[in-house]
Specification:
alpha/beta; two-stranded parallel sheet; TIM Barrel; Four Helix Bundle (Hemerythrin (Met), subunit A); 14% strand; eight-stranded parallel beta barrel; 16 helices
Amino acid sequence: MLHIASPTNTEKHSPWRMSVAPMLDWTDRHCRFFHRLLTKNTLLYTEMVNAGAIVHGGTERHLRFNAEEHPVALQLGGSDRALLAQSAQLGAQWGYDEINLNCGCPSERVQRGAFGACLMQEPTLVADCVKAMLDVVDVPVTVKHRIGIDQNEEYGFVRDFVGTVAGAGCRVFIVHARNAWLKGLSPKENREVPPLRYGVAAKLKQDFPHLTIAINGGFTTDAAVQEQLALVDGVMVGREAYHNPWWLVRWDEVFYGATPQHLSREAVEATMVDYMAREAAQHGTHWYAIARHMLGLRHGLRGARHWRQVWSNHRLKDLPAHEVMALAHQPPAVLG
């Protein structure tokens, strides 16, 4: 089993230098445990969690995480100051290293709850929410947001939003460098259709040099990340980190100057199987719910398709995870 070491070299870099984005239905605690096997220093985010759900009876279900995940941030959704303050306080008590407010999700379901990207239209409310959280926690309270709403691409809109929220004490902004179209586009289309405008994040850093500005949106290569790290304080990677997780193995060396990791995919997979056994014994979690997050582990390798098919085969659910792993590494003919 792999040993998950403590983060290294973090004193040299911003804690937000590299992070994996909060992704609904994806970045649960099992996904984060997997990602932590690959990178020691990268900041990991939870899925967005409704503040009301945490306060009204779902505290343990929503806040439980593995000690190995640190540094880990809790992302909250909501616009009620009292609920956000309560849920932030609970998050800090549970040991999260940061509380993040979602001001970027464009889905209509989230809009009906009066939070997500639509909050960018109410910067004073966001500032009040941030202050309410800062008043009750000792960890950073940060904001993730878009660069505009609908077809409004005026820089002044996002500049004024950041300025207002910073006035309440927020010092870290994660900028998804696309507009959010609140009508007419699905959440998936909102990740692809509005054009990326990286220059907006760089301009925010120029105008607010005392703030930490990280950028999110469309990063898939070391070179693209390095280009942005010359302009802003950090880069957040989303879907590429999930679908091609082996990229994360390079991050500690390339972006933090750490000693190269000598990991193998086989060792990571074996550690995940040990984790599956631990989760089954402690929480009754089925391995199938965990294995889905590591299906990209062998991305681009020969035999990867067969390996994925085995680990996602519902007909094998009744087998112990270590037997499934053995099948995944046998020739396809063995399964018939």
